[in-house]
Amino acid sequence: MDENARLLDRLSRQYFEEYPSAQAEFDRAEESLIDGGSHTLRLFGPAPFRIVGASGSRLTDSDGHEILDFWQGHYANVLGHNPPLITQVLAQRLGGGYGLHTGITESLQTDFAALLLKLIGAEKIRFTSSGALADMYSIMLARAFTGRPLIVKVGGGWQGAHPLALKGVSFRDGYDHSESAGLSPNEVESVLLTRYNDPEDLTGLFQTHGDRIACFIVEPWMGMGGFMPATPEYLRTARELTHKYGAVLIFDEIISGFRFCAGGVFKLYGVQPDISTYAKVIGGGMPLAAVAGREEIMRLCSPGSERRVKFDGGTFSAHPAALLAGNALVEYLAEHENDIYPRLGMLGEKMRRGVEEAFAREGIYVQCTGYGNEVVTDSSLGMIHFPVEEGIRLTCPDQVWNPAVCDVERREKVLKLAFLLEKVYVMHGLGVLSTEHTEDDLEWLFAACEGAARRIKT
Question: Model pTM?
Fold first, then answer.
């Protein structure tokens, strides 16, 4: 049995002692649900606990524990869990007979669209209900606009579970592979992979395939791939290449949108994409996403277009309750931008450095990603990594998901259980801060880091 397997065995036994209802709840869920749930990322081993409440920075589980949460609704909850700003608006409007689905257009959609366009600097916008759909439609629009088949994406980048992006997400001695059965070979072959923060690799790809590339879709701040910002040079190169070769530049701002400022993080770089996609934060805790961009591209959604893209909207697109929540949140973020983001950035800096120092005090070397750069200074994100050698600078997914560079199993499995025994919930090593996280919460986290380190060393 290797070291991580030994640790997981011991921590799992301790976990069930501390969370006694987890196994019974999981067994009951498996009677009806595949693997006991409907989102694979939430179904960690040996059995996920079940929550009964969430407020601010805290969760309450079925065993009565108060748990400090850094997952925060898949990184969506900038104001924490169930902020009164949003819950009161929803309660009031629902109590007054408005908020559930009607299937009829209402003026709030127009108002919210205008607010978002003002903040993100795009010309037109259309709502949908998930980030995966937003990214899928953005790629379809790019293909229709250019008449070209090839899609360029970053190896290790996550652009949603849809056929146009399920290639090169997980690391298996590299990224050049399909992520799912059931995909057309043509779709898999149409996706070209490039290395994050590598302008030379991107340039070579365009020099070879430029006249067949429809789009380059990229996160200006890498999410699941490692919580790392794009370098300014990388995004400038992406803009120059897509312009030169007539391709569409798509910024996936599903995570980064409204996380660093009241708008897209591209504003801080001064690099304007042709299309950008948003979800998570803009829904205010409700399912809402958007595709925004140049009018000549977005017009392809219209039934009158000769090269029409069937971006007609699903049953729950622009759901009234999601519009209410999203509008309330985005208005608040815009009004308080100068207070919210600097504070989140300050806490984020303290969080990352404090985590590294806490593990170091226990003799364990970790490195956090999530630090900003010369243009993105207020970062409230962090991931903890266990590099196999000290001094490695982590700048792309090829490193943080490669077991030869970082101990991935220790981050994803061992650390998660060790933190849960300290009543802290993390995803991919750590997570994000909300406005409801406090200095005391950080002290709780740092103590948990020391406790988790001792559990790992024992």
Answer: 0.97
